[in-house]
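Raw record, unedited: DNA topoisomerase (ATP-hydrolyzing)
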Amino acid sequence: MEEVRRSTIFFTEQHLSYADILPPLQVRARIEVAVLNFLKDLNSPTPAISNLPMINRKTSNSRVNQGLLTDVSWIFLSRSCCTKSMTRESSAKSFIRAWKVMEMCYEILVQEKRVTQRELFYKLLCASPDYFSSQLQVNQTIQDVVALLRCSRFSLGIMASSRGAVAGRLLLQEPGEEIIDCTTCGSSGYPISGDLDLLEKLIMKTDARYIFVIEKRLAEDQVFNQIPCILITAKGYPDLATRFLLHRMTRAFPEIKILGLVDWNPAGLAILCTYKYGSIGMGLEAYRYACNVKWLGIRKDDLDIIPEESLIPLKPKDLQIAKSLTSSEILQDNYKEELAVMVQRGRKAEIEALYFHGYDFLGKYLANKVVQARVSFDK
C-alpha cells in the first residue's frame, strides 16, 4: 500500500492530466489511498480537514495540442489544480459529494457491477438526499472524482448511456455471438452499447471507404448501397459510447476517411467539433476519443441548392453558441468563416432541407460532396 501511496496521482506535479483506464483493483487502491490521506490528516498533531486536489476543469485550464506532422488537433487539460475544501462554504457540499460518489463507486467495483449515471443519481438521491438533488450535481461530481483519481468514468464502474447507432458496410461480432451485418439492421441501425468493454472487444470488418458521422438521420436512405460507407450517429450531441466506437473504428480502419454531415447552424458545428477535438465538459477524458472528422456538409456553398424558404432564423441560443465557438482558439479559420456567414445572414439550414430535391437526393448530395472532398480534404 505504501508503494501505491508513493506513486499515487495525488503527487500531481509528476503526472500529466489525463484519465487512466484501469482495472477495478487499481481504482479501489486509489480510493483507499484517498481515505488513508484523509485519516492521516485527521490524526496529525494538528488535526485538519484535508483538501481534495483535482485538475481544474475550467476553460481557462484547457490547452490545444496541434499535430506537427498532421492536421489533427485536440483539446486537453493542463496540470493546473484546484481544491475542494470542507472549510470553504462555497465547496463544502461538493467536497462531501465527492466522498459520497467515491464510496458508491467503491461498492460498485467490489460487487463487480456497472451502473449508468442515471442509475447512480437515483442511488445517491435515496442514500444522500441532503447532498444530491439533480442529475447535474451527480454528473459534475463524477467528473470531480475522475479529476481526483485520474481514472476514467468506465474504470469507476460507471457505464455510458448511449443513444447512438451504426449502419452500413460493417460486420460486427461480439465475443461468442453471431456476426451482425449492419446493412440489414433496418432504418434505426444497430444500437451502440454503453458497455465500453464490449465495444473494445468487438470484432469488426468492412469494405467501406468512408465513415459518415451524421447528426441525426441514419439508414432510411441506405446511402451505403450507393457509396461504400459506414454511417454513425449519436442523434445529436455525441455521447461517450458513440465517440468511443467511432474512435475504435479509426484505430481498426486507419485508412478510412471520416466525414461529418451536420446542420448548417452553430449547434451542428459544435457537434462536429466535439467529435473532432473533444470537449472540456469531458474533463480529463476530453481528448481521448477525438477523431479527425472532416466537415463535409452542410456548408455555406450548399446554400445555392437549398430554397430560401427552407432557411430558419437563428435563435438567441444559436448566437450564444456561435460566439463561444468563434472565441475558441482551436477552431480553424474556414470554420469561423462559416459561422460569420451564419450570423451575418441570421439564418440556418437543416439537413432535411435537402429533401426538397427528392427523398433520394441525400445519396446524390453525399456522392457529389465526396468527389469534391477528394480534391481538398483540408476544409
